[in-house]
Amino acid sequence: TVHGVPSLSAKVVGSFAYLTVKDRLPTILTKVIDTIHRNKNKFFEEFGEEGIQAEKAAISLLSKLRNELQTDKPVLPLTDDLEDVDSWNQYLQRQQRLEGDQELVSWFKSPWLYVECYMYRRIQEALRLNPPISDFDVFNEGKTQSFFESQQAMIVLCTYLEGMRKNIKELSKSQLSEHFNKLLQVALWGNKCDLSISAGQDNSQKVSPIDSLVSLKPFILVDHSSMVWSTLISTQNSGRTGSVRVDIVLDNAGFELVTDLVLADFLVSSGLAHEIHFHGKSFPWFVSDVTAKDFQWTIRQMMAANHMWMSRSGVQWQNYVKEGVWSYHDHPFWTQPHEFCDMAADAPDLYATLQAADLVLFKGDLNYRKLTGDRDWKYTVGFHTALRGFRPAPLCSLRTLKANVQVGLQPGQGENLSSQEVDWMTSGKYAIIQFNSSLAE
Ligand code: F6P
Ligand code: MG
Question: Could you tell me if the CB of 371 is within 6 A of ligand 1?
Fold first, then answer.
């Protein structure tokens, strides 16, 4: 606990954390095992006998992992050769000290954030220990499929973007701010489409992402978009460096990534920003999170799309990347279990990177859990308090609610929602656009 605020954990029987560890995580592991098995002929046999053995060995490690999880065994140190092994194992020791020596850190007793992150790292370990298949992305099929299933919605979005691009230089401030608000909301609701909450089931965007904004508006519980807008505008005017930089900490591939790229394109082509840094994961994570491969693949698919506006957007994005206006970055910290308030001490280089941004957008639920430490905060606690000193730059969380953590609500707001809908915090139906300036309070 931090100041008596406990971490969400599966030890609270019946909680969403409990249901996730009990049901959703084993389902995801079973799908991973099945995927490796199904791809045996397609990918692994080219490595001959070694490939076949690797496939068998990885499956057996993953079945063992599923068994450890389901029987609440202690969390084990990692044994592969990735650069982050030491910091994971140190984290385990830190966690063990926090929990006291009576009981070992384990799946159902320890913080949910930690064990859930650990599961994805163990999947990676099972592959790394079997070199012929160590680069295989067990979630690739799902990500690719959800991309194609959202094509219609992407076309709508790209048509909107290309229509606006034509006369973007003539738009007034208020017209720009209107477009900004729309695209910020599109990027917000894009977060509904992750494949972790659905345990890998199809969860793609089927309706028009622009037309649905009005009807979705009442479900935005905290809306600080005007503060995000003023941050962008005031940075323009301050002329600090002459170049405005926005960092986007990405979440999911598929439709959500396209909404983020459309927003980034708008920021650049309107002149509101001059540089966008995207931050993604260095290995497959929480089923649908963006890796470098997904990022490149998505832009290539857009370019090759059989639709004029979609491919035009793709070509534009490829140019941004070539010219360095857009850049993709990954860092091991994003695939570790740490709360973001640990970043300054545990990943000072990454913290310094974010400090160079004028605005940082954090996409999605997991990032929100890490911003707030995944704790059982009172709903009315300030976002600033929950961040516990994490303020590298002005930042904004764009998140649909999929976990039992929410701060910064009005008195009574959370209680009202709870009395109407038991699962308002976990259904993905509600969302927040929550801002925090970089200033100490
Ligand atoms: O377990 C479901 C879940 O893992 C959430 O608890 C987690 O935070 C979320 O899915 C991932 O969502 P997102 O892709 O928005 O980070
Ligand atoms: Mg995700």
Answer: no
List Cα–Cα distances, 329 to 181, 202, 221, 313, 406, in angstroms. Answer: 26, 28, 31, 21, 28
How many angstroms separate the CA atoms of 323 and 31, rounded? 40
Q: Which of 114, 197, 423 to mutate to test the pocket of ligand 1 (most atoms within 8 A of CB)?
A: 197
Q: What domains are there in the chain, each with its CATH number?
A: 16-133 (1.20.930.60), 143-436 (3.40.50.10880)
Does the beta carbon of 364 sit less than 6 angstroms from any atom of ligand 1?
Answer: yes
Other C-beta atoms lying within 10 Å of the C-beta of residue 137 = 16
Which residue's alpha carbon is nearest to atom 8 within ligand 1?
366
3-state secondary structure of 279: strand
Q: Is 369 in the pocket of ligand 1 (CB under 6 A)?
A: yes
The gap from C-alpha 383 to its chain's centroid, in whole angstroms, comes to 19
Instruction: Per residue of the chain (441 residues), give pLDDT as tens.
Output: 556 899 999 999 999 999 999 999 999 999 999 999 998 877 777 788 888 899 999 999 999 999 999 999 999 999 999 999 999 999 999 999 998 878 899 999 999 999 999 999 999 999 999 999 999 999 999 999 999 999 999 999 999 999 999 999 999 999 999 999 999 999 999 999 777 666 666 677 777 889 899 999 999 999 999 999 999 999 877 655 679 999 999 999 999 999 999 999 999 999 999 999 999 999 999 999 999 999 999 999 999 999 999 999 999 999 999 999 999 999 999 999 999 999 999 999 999 999 999 999 999 999 999 999 999 999 999 999 999 999 999 999 999 999 999 999 999 999 999 999 999 999 999 999 999 998 877
Q: What is the DSSP string of 62-103?
A: HHHHHHHHHTTPBPPPP-S--TTHHHHHHHHHHHHHHH-SSS
Kind of pairing, strands 220-223 and 245-249? unpaired
Task: Please indicate whether residue 370, judged by its CB atom, sits closer than 6 Å to ligand 1.
Answer: no
Tell which one of 194, 406, 430 to mutate to probe ligand 1, the residue whose CB is within 8 A of the most ligand atoms: 194
Name the residue of 249, 255, 375, 402 whose CB sits within 8 Å of the most ligand 1 atoms, as the mutation to test its pocket.
402
Give distance in angstroms: CA of 290 to centre of ligand 2: 8
